[in-house]
Amino acid sequence: MITDFVIEKMNRYVAGGTSPRTAAQFTRGELAAIYKGTHYGRDVTGKFQHTPSPENVNLETAMKKADAAIAEIISQYPAPVEQPRSIYRSSDAIKCTVAAGIKIKPFFAKGGDNDPAFYTADLQQIRAMWNEGQRRFKAYVRGKFLVIDIDRKPGKPDGLEAFYRLFPKETLPEELQNLPESFPCYTKTPLCGFHLFFKYEGAELKLRELAPSVEIKETQITCPGSRREDGEYVLHGELDNAPPLYGLIIDAIEEAKRKKEQAKAEHSKPRTKAAADRPMRQEKPRITLDDLANETTATHTGNHDRQVSFAGRAFRCKFSGAETLAYVKSHADIFGNDTDTENTVMSVFRDNGAA
Questions:
Q1: With bands split at pLDDT 50, 70 and 90, how would you rate the model's confidence at 284?
Q2: What is the pTM of this model?
Q3: How high is the pLDDT of residue 34?
Q4: Domain map of the chain by residue range?
Q5: Burial (CB count <10 Å: 0-12, 13-18, 19+), residue 110
Q6: Which of the 8 DSSP states describes residue 284?
Q7: 317: pLDDT confidence band, cut at 50, 70 and 90?
Q8: What per-residue string of b and e applies to 20-50 under the rule 16 or more CB within 10 Å gives b?
């Protein structure tokens, strides 16, 4: 039974684009939570339900059996070999872009930015534009890719720092933990920023800015290989290796949209004269810690991962470290409560600049 569980979970994670070692970590954490009686999952209606732990099972023996099954599965995959990343410049980068099914057009051509009919994948037309001196292009990515544009322009907020404030490194997939070098396919921009390419064919997410200097590009982006006066857009890696858009990023986008809509609704409410005369004060967010706990259990299984993710979400939603820690300790069935729980939760707040 344990072996069947491991095989099913591992294969499901790997099929979704997760590396075998990360799939092993997730599978082991979920199995341990089941045996400890701290696992929650969605039922057919979408509600969270507690998973009853099996009776008369020795946890240590069960996990040893699971580790053996995991090791056997991982051994079937070739060991990762570090390959030098291909780097494409100029016309070579443009050819790679077109080969990935992306159409392009001259950057300064008037109109049609959001209309694929104004773009072309005809290499003869593109070569003619190149021979005429055209060196800067727009690429139409809608329906194939979504691009996260991380700016690092001098004198403006650092997009990389903003990204890691939004997503603590320890909660991220390996590909996102050491940007941009850890990412399989990106464009380096002239001012040391970068464009991360994700495969995405889903519905339009309709958010432009995820965080300061972190933008979502769903329709068009400066084409890899383009040049401007201060430098060029260099393509690192193969577009075919771009990962699918992670659910945690989609969740962050939806949360940002919800906050934006909430702020807009609050701003549009008529204010009485008495209220207008009172000093502005920050209102407590409508989202509750229970809501954040439900979101956390939907994406994480291990107690430590849940504590880190929940604390990060609570910080971003303006909850204090004290009330976050109190909630975690009062819900040991979800988060556990060992000797390191307080340090784990509070370190997230300290890492994000909380006093």
A1: very low
A2: 0.57
A3: 79
A4: 2-75, 87-245, 279-351
A5: exposed
A6: P
A7: confident
A8: beebbbbbbbbbbbbbeebbbeeeeeeeeee
